[in-house]
Amino acid sequence: MTRRTKSHTLNQLVVERLMHYYHLVAEQIETQTSGYVSSAQIAELLDMDDTLVRKDLAAIGVRGRPRVGFSTQVLMNSIRETLGFNERYRSVIVGAGRLGGAIASYGGFGKYGLDIVALFDADPLRVGTDLGGASVLPIDSLESTVREHGVHLAVLTVPAEAAQPLADRLVEAGIRAIWNFAPTSLVLPSNIFVRHEHISVGLAELAYYLKRNDLSNDRS
Amino acid sequence: MTRRTKSHTLNQLVVERLMHYYHLVAEQIETQTSGYVSSAQIAELLDMDDTLVRKDLAAIGVRGRPRVGFSTQVLMNSIRETLGFNERYRSVIVGAGRLGGAIASYGGFGKYGLDIVALFDADPLRVGTDLGGASVLPIDSLESTVREHGVHLAVLTVPAEAAQPLADRLVEAGIRAIWNFAPTSLVLPSNIFVRHEHISVGLAELAYYLKRNDLSNDRS
Asked: To which H or E segment does residue B16 belong?
């Protein structure tokens, strides 16, 4: 009931932080504790302010017990429910190259609701192969597959120059959200949700650490 | 001079936001404007508070001009310099599977300072091949290559169960920072910097959007 009343939209940064809490608790905390975690513990491990942790969790209706903390089970279930991991999302992967293949084969995304219906590629040599249990289909059948399976989500793993025309085709076919791994921005109607995955954000943090600690190999 | 006096450490969230500003300005703003951008523009496009944008930029010594905003050139150069993109970081990729191959072949990481010296794989069929201009070497030569080239950064793209023993070997060989794409946490000495890349954080945002808009394919 509490969560139902919280129908306002969480912004991107809150969603991302919730996901970090989820990973942290699932991977590092849940196995080591008595089933409770404090906002201070989460805050310390993620190097952030514990007030923000409490605020984020309160926003999804998760309240701690004084001196005990948050139930890890309640916390994880609430995040799963809020973020939609208990639903299923049929998706297609466009681009069956190394990255598309890595995503299809990873297998770990299923627990967040991702169902991969098929991959698509323009290269006839890739068509007909199987990646992570899904078939690589010819790019011509993109629209018919999306419509037939009621697919709303597309993962775009094509080179930069191919991204925009394919995104346009996906939108035309009825796609509502694109997970864009192509290293380029997409211009799309405002009702289409695009998440541009900048893997280089991670690299920035590493570069910053290495620089600060004089661990570069400067050859200039 | 201004930036030199700012020697305190930026935390992870600040570094990540700086990288998002950098991408935003590089990809969407720089080409469309007169060379200036306001904190309000950045804040709106990233769906965040403009006070935070100004605070982050002030932390790296970037100050705007009243009614004009921030010079995009100064902003980008300051971020590049602060985050260390103007230095070079020799790195190795451990795991020459699909994801390792995708990272080696991407080519876009060089502009952030990443130099890939070599890849390593335990599979003899992969050894001797070339990915993105770097050779795949046998895993036995990991330690000698790391030492010989003064490599401080390793990109770990191996299955979860192989990650910890390989991370231990990397640390023993002198690696100081690990970019971990393996879907598991690593237990390492506290002086080793680990960035765990949770690609599923992006998926969380998409799942949340799809759920909110009733775009799931629920079969329960």
From this structure: helix B12-24
Task: Tell me the per-residue pLDDT of B115-145, one tens digit each, with 9 for 90 and over.
Answer: 999 999 999 999 999 999 999 999 999 999 9
Structural domains of chain A, with CATH: 2-83 (1.10.10.10), 89-200 (3.40.50.720)
- Decide if B200 and A109 are in contact by the 8 Å CB cutoff: yes
The residue ranges of chain B whose pLDDT is under 50 are 1-7, 220
For residue A43, name the pLDDT band (cuts at 50, 70, 90).
very high
Q: What is the pLDDT of residue A219?
A: 54
Neighbour count for residue A121 (Cβ, 10 Å): 24
- Answer yes or no: do A210 and B85 touch at CB < 8 A: no
DSSP lists the bridge partners of residue A155 as A93, A179
CA distance A164 to B97: 28
Determine contact, residues B63/B99, Cβ cutoff 8 Å: no
B209 vs A218: CB contact, 8 Å cut-off?
A: no
What is the three-class DSSP state of B42?
helix
Structure confidence by residue, pLDDT tens digits, A175-194? 999 999 998 889 999 999 99
Q: Determine, for residues B203 and A114 on separate chains, whether the beta-carbon distance falls below 8 Å.
A: yes
Smallest CA–CA separation between A139 and chain B, in Å? Answer: 21
- Return the residue in A11, A18, A117, A206 with the most chain B beta carbons within 10 A, the one to mutate for interface testing: A206
Taken in order B29, B202, B134, B105, the sign of the CA dihedral is negative
β-pairing, B89-94 vs B153-156, is: parallel
Predicted confidence (pLDDT) per residue in A52-70, tens digit: 999 999 999 999 998 889 9
Work out the end-to-end distance of chain B between its first and last CA atoms, rounded to an integer number of angstroms: 61
Q: Provide the 10 A C-beta neighbour count for residue A92.
A: 24
A173 within 8 A of A148, measured Cβ to Cβ: no
How far, in Å, CA of A54 to CA of B212, rounded?
A: 23
Burial class for A162, CB neighbours closer than 10 Å (0-12, 13-18, 19+): middle
Q: Which residues of chain B have a CB within 8 Å of the CB of A89?
A: 206-207, 210, 215-217
